[in-house]
Task: inverse folding
């Protein structure tokens, strides 16, 4: 399957630091790797409803849910570009991941088997200079990938508060140059680590 990257922008503002950093990393992808960019603020998902145990499930076809479902299963690589909000994912990013729980029951599509072996990546801007405060976000993405039997490429972190600040984080820009060229091992839960 040729590689195709789905970039999900999950900030509450456009042209912010997370998007700038994600675009810097994406510039390094080979030209034959497809890139699709979807801004979750411009394609908002309705409130997630947990219907896993009490309704007939249908494949999402309409609106932003259908668009995001189709884009997700078409991509080999999913990049969650979420700013750090309260030490974790933004609401937009979290809501998108919540939808995966419903999609696990889509008739005719084994969502878990479809996503297994594909790669989850993160890109995050944060105001704090000590990046370990983003560990909850990194853990959320790592454990979600582990649950889905996906690969996890890690999270590209950059510092910034107002839009454009991240372009002064020279170390983040240097990491962006090789970020997507890294090996992405199969994700493991922390208790599975050797
Ligand atoms: C709702 C909200 C919560 C935030 N929480 C944190 C946080 O927990 N830690 C932090 O370092 N920065 C926090 N910030 C700052 C943003 O992470 C920072 O401004 C970042 O550059 C925003 O990314 P963006 O430019 O892509 O929108 C928060 C900002 C907002 C609006």
Result:
């Amino acid at each position: 399957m040729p590689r195709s990257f789905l970039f999900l922008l999950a900030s509450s503002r456009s042209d912010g630091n997370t998007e700038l950093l994600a675009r810097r990393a994406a510039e390094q992808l080979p030209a034959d790797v497809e890139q699709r960019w979807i801004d979750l603020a411009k394609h908002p998902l309705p409130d997630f409803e947990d219907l896993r145990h009490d309704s007939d499930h249908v494949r999402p076809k309409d609106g932003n849910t259908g668009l995001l479902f189709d884009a997700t299963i078409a991509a080999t690589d999913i990049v969650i570009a979420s700013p750090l909000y309260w030490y974790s994912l933004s609401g937009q990013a979290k809501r998108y991941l919540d939808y995966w729980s419903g999609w696990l029951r889509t008739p005719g599509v084994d969502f878990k088997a479809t996503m297994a072996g594909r790669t989850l990546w993160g890109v995050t801007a944060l105001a704090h200079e000590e990046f370990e405060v983003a560990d909850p976000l990194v853990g959320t993405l790592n454990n979600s990938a582990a649950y889905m039997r996906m690969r996890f490429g890690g999270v590209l972190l950059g510092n910034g508060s107002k839009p454009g600040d991240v372009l002064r984080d020279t170390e983040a820009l240097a990491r962006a140059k090789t970020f997507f060229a890294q090996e992405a091992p199969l994700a493991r839960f922390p208790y599975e680590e050797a």
User: Anything to note?
Assistant: The CA atoms of residues 147 and 189 lie 8 Å apart.
